[in-house]
Structures are given as structure tokens and as C-alpha cells.
Amino acid sequence: MKYVIIGNSTAAVGAVEAIRRNDRNGRIVIIGNEKYHVYSRPLISYLLLGKTDEERMKYRGDDFYSTHQCELKLGRTAQKIDVEQKCVILDNGETESYDRLLLATGSSPVVPPIPGLDKMEKKFTFTTLDDARALEEALFEGARVLILGAGLIGLKCAEGISKKKVEIICVDLSPKVLSSILDDQSSEMVRKHLEDHHIRFYLGRQVTGFEGYTAVLNDGTQIPFDVLVLAVGVRPNISLLRDAGGRTNRGILIDDHCRTSIPDIYAAGDCCESLDVSSGETKIMALLPNAYMQGECAGMNMSGVDYVFDKAIPMNAIGLFGKHIITAGTYKGDTYFESDGEHFKKLFYSDNKLNGFILIGNIEKAGIYTALIREKTPLDTIDFELICQTPGLMAFSRETRAEKLGGVVNVSVSSPIGISCAE
């Protein structure tokens, strides 16, 4: 059996590790358009901040490819899938045949069609290691950095360059920061925290054009700057499957086995749409834990084991200037809310289940809330009042505690053993 994986990514790692559980002898070929060992993309802001280095950014150790017997074709771009011949055509004209193919192609930054943008040299996106390197090289003491986008990417970029002695200005069409993951109350709390760290915001406004290195906003405001960062969003890389005749929407459409509509072609990660079990909607969830688990699901099925991943939920964990934020699920239903100005907790629930949560500051027991959402745990089977105030396994029934503790009940429980908090 020959497995070809397009994308040297988190999803690819999940697939490789799953394949090797079941098939020690099949060939695995990884095609990646970057030249680097697989690394954790969310860490590029910490690289600029000086909190990590390129060695510690690696998502797996140096021996990952050799241990798992992977053949690498890095610095190469897959341009076309020939479904009839079951092969992938690369940018250098080479072809790579496959028995099973995984698309782990990720997403690409959106570059908005703003007048004057094409004439600018010092403009950067912020999703790859090369992006971070290029941006760092362009910065200088006293530089005015304009970031378009006050979402996850834009704000992590702001934190990453915050110690470079630069001025940071952030513009976003939304009237609030992190609008994709926070509600009004939590967003306001985070905005004030960011302003305390000298980030200047123009919210509810957009850039209508550039006159040299001056941004003109829709209300007439003019913002001079030296360096521009585009962080307005990402777009799933779906063209390979779409051009091959596969079913796509905004993302590649997959089932709960991570199969696409074309036989022997699978997809996983940021390029896909999948079912959000917290809302019942199919959507793009560009999240590292989901990417790994989808890759794992694809790898299991590619190597002949029937395997389902049907517990995907929107989930984000981010730290900004020492303030930790974890969110998950969907924000609908009744709410439990508490905040003391430094810490923030809001839980959303209805129909006897937890739908979602927002935690800021104290995030220690987020894994318990995440597990409740994923498993759709009936709230009348737990002490939900206790879970709201002081999450811990003691809020669960004796039988559930026994299951999560591997059959051991008579122990002192101070942490959610058996529930992943790393997510």
C-alpha cells in the first residue's frame, strides 16, 4: 500500500502515526510546500517574542520521519490530482502515484483587494515561519506597524512584535476584538487589557485605500505607518479536490471517516468542513486539536481500520500579554456568568447539555467543560451547580468517576484526571 499525504502539517502527523499503528510496511510519501520539519504554526508569534526558538517549535522530534519511515518531498507544491491515473502532479513536473491520498493542505491568508495595496513593498501576512522571519527583518526601532485584523492572528502578531520597540495600530471592521470567539462582555475585557499594553485600536472601521504608506479609513481617518500586516482571515486550500471534481463548499466536504466524495481520497485539518457537535452545523473549524484528530481518523481508515471522528467542536486557546483565554462550543441557551475584573467565566447551556464556554484568566479546569460538550453529557446526571462554580470530578456520579479514573473511585481528586486539559 502506498500512502501520499499533501501537506506537512498537524493533520499529516496524526495520519502518519495512525497509519503506522496498522501498517508497518506501506510506503508513506509526504509532499509539503515549505522546506521545514513539521512545526507548530501557532508558535510563530512566540518566536518573535523570544519565548521559543525554531528547534522548540518542532511539532515532533527530529527522528519523526525516519522512525515512521516517511519519504519527504519538501519545497514542492502539488498542482493537480489525476483521479483516473491515481497520481499527483507536482510543480516540477514529477508525478507521485497513490493508493490512498490525504489532503492536509491547510489554508492560506486572505489578501483583500484594497486600492494601493499592490504598490506597497513592506506588507506581510502572518501564518508561516517564513512570514515571521520576513516581518522581523522589516521591523526597526520606532516603526509604526499597522495590523489589519483584530482576530486571533492579528493579535498574536501584535503580541509577538510588542517587545521590538515599535508602535502598534490595529484596524478591524468588527466593533470588537476577537469577534469570532468572544461575546461583547469578554471582548471588552480583553480590549482594555490589550490597550494597557499599548495596542491602539480603530474598531468598527475599515481601510478603503492606501496612499503610499498612509491608510485611509471609511470615516476619513488617515493612519501613517511603516510596515503593514494583513491578518483579515484565511481561506481553506480546496482547489486540488475541487478541480478534480470533488465536492467542496467553503472547505472540502468530508464524512465522519474523513473521506471525500472521491474514492481513496481523504482530507483533514483546516482545509475541511466538518460537523460541529455543539451546534449541529457543518463549518470550518481551523483548530490544531481537531486537525490532529481528523488526521488520525483519516490515517486509520486509509490503513484499513474502520474509525469515526464525530466529536469536533470549535475550540480556541490563546494567551495575550499574560492573559489566558479558552473558548469552546457554541454560545446559545441560558448562561452562568461570573467575573471579578481579572477573571471571566461564562457557560452556555440548554436542553440538558452544555453548549459552550468562555474562560479568561483562570482556565485550569477547561478540560472538564470541553469533555461535557464533546460527550453531550446530560446535565441532570451531574451536579451542574457545582460544575459551574468549582469544576472537578466530584461533581460527577460515582460510576462516571470510576470510568474516568480507570475504575478507581476512592482517591482524592483535585484535577480532571482522564480529561485532556491540553486542548
From TrEMBL:
Name by which UniProt lists this protein: Pyridine nucleotide-disulphide oxidoreductase
Domain of life: Bacteria
SUPFAM superfamilies the UniProt entry points to: FAD/NAD(P)-binding domain (SSF51905)
FAD/NAD(P)-binding domain sequence ranges: 1-295
Keyword Flavoprotein listed: yes
Pfam families: Pyr_redox_2
Species, as recorded: Thermoclostridium caenicola
Cofactor: FAD
InterPro entries named among the record's database cross-references: FAD-bd_OxRdtase (IPR050260), FAD/NAD-bd_sf (IPR036188), FAD/NAD-binding_dom (IPR023753), FAD/NAD-linked_Rdtase_dimer_sf (IPR016156)
One MF term in the entry's GO annotations: oxidoreductase activity
This protein's UniProt keywords: FAD, Flavoprotein
